[in-house]
Amino acid sequence: MIMMLISCGDNALYQDTYDILIRGGEIIDGTGSRAYKADLLIKENMIVHVGKVDIEKIDAREIIDAAGKVVAPGFIDAHAHGDPLTTPGFENFLAMGVTTITLGQDGSSPMTGNISEWMDEVDHIQPGVNIGIFVGHGTVRRLTGVDYRTEVSTDDLDRMAQLVDIAMEAGCFGLSTGLEYEPGSLAGMDELVAIAKPVGRHGGLVMSHMRSEDDDKIESALEELLTQGLKADCPVQVSHIKITYGKDASRAEDILAQMEAAREKGLRVMADLYPYTASYTGIGIVFPDWVKPPYEYEKVVKTRRDELADYLRNRIALRNGPEATLFGTEPWVGMTLAEVAEQLNKPFEDVLIDDIGLRGASAAYFVMHDDVMERFMIDPYVMICSDGSPTMHHPRGYGSFARIIRKYVNEKNLLTLEEAIHKMTGLTASTIGYDAIDNPRGFIKPDFIADLVIFDPDAVRDTAVYEEPNRLAEGFDYVFVNGIAAIEDGVFTGKRGGVVLKKRSINNNK
Predict the structure, then answer these.
(1) Which 8-state DSSP code applies to residue 100?
(2) N or C terminus: which one in the chain shows less Cβ crowding within 10 Å?
(3) What is the mean pLDDT of the chain?
(4) What is the C-alpha separation between 475 and 95, in angstroms, rounded?
(5) Are 161 and 197 in contact (CB under 8 A)?
(6) For position 193, what pLDDT does the model report?
(7) 303 and 412 in a common domain
(8) CATH number reported for the structural domain that contains residue 403 in this entry
(9) Are 64 and 53 in contact (CB under 8 A)?
(10) What is the reported pTM?
(11) What was the pLDDT predicted at 9?
């Protein structure tokens, strides 16, 4: 039996004036429960009623006929990138139904010791989507002067923890780490625990791009994250969960079992995932740690060039060869490493050493397998992200959420639509805390903010491909952000309704 949610009695319902009435849609409310038919009433930016409405009695300024369409919470991206001060519209996210994005990922957040000022600045320009922010471990290292040091003192740890505590007080939802990147890669367990403790005290979450996602190293990297969470008494989340080079779904089972064992010890462990088998990041990912800071790249090239060339040949071979690295930055956009090497008439390892270097390019890397990714996708503790941005040369930033519906619901039947929407809304909201703030969202129910999407599931499709990664998704008739229509009848309105979301301060030491 489906229970209808009624926010007030019939008499009170018809004595008020509403901004929007959404009639006759199939409500998928974000909980994972089965769809049901109901009407929605919105006043200002709030859902005030979910249930049957007598249109002859109701006073609504706008009426939207959603018959035959799905009405769902606006999608929430658990792991995204972008700068709202330079690209505030975020049309790429809105076009695929995303109304909230989560920034400050992979250990990198706005370079300021006063995140409140950044939040105020973003609110002032009013972005197209809502923005939740995590404080980045690498940024904290830089702001406190620890930077690329491998030896850290007790005072260093105290200063980093204090900066994390200040960020949590300001409304950050947690801490992100990027342990595969410098300077995060230089941190040991004492440091990881010290910076996670204030997050745990505030009821926040540590999101981690782990130290390695390689098939032969992922268990140890995951164990490091789980140990950090247990020692700091802080929930953890695996960012963009994947197994590089893993070609057997049983490897996903191994990782999921490792996470479940930590849950049995009392640790809350979650993960997010984007639905593509190519990753995207800086070319430094293929270089060894011994050429990265605090080491001097030019000096290493001069003294250990042959060793570096051997390492890169082997590393690229393990990553499916130079044909599997597709550049997304100038001057080689759309070319593979193999094609660049052919153009320059030199071995690809020499191209990497001499022409590109540690930070000379970003690329998509075709190093994952569908079976592994899909096994992760159906796990109940895994939510959806894009790991994308408005400017990234990878289709995930423009297609991820539409792709989930088009490919994994409609075509492959890997997920039901209710399950998929739960992974794109309520699961993310309840994990990060977007459902427990002063302006809650992530579910369709009274007293929640009107972040909503209306669409025909059969019409939704991702159009972005690796050759043309910045093509907008299609099929969303309406996208509301805080009750403001960013998309209406499938067309952008130009209205921006986003706000900076702030976590309630819950310091368990106070």
Answers:
(1) E
(2) N
(3) 95
(4) 8
(5) yes
(6) 98
(7) no
(8) 3.20.20.140
(9) no
(10) 0.93
(11) 53
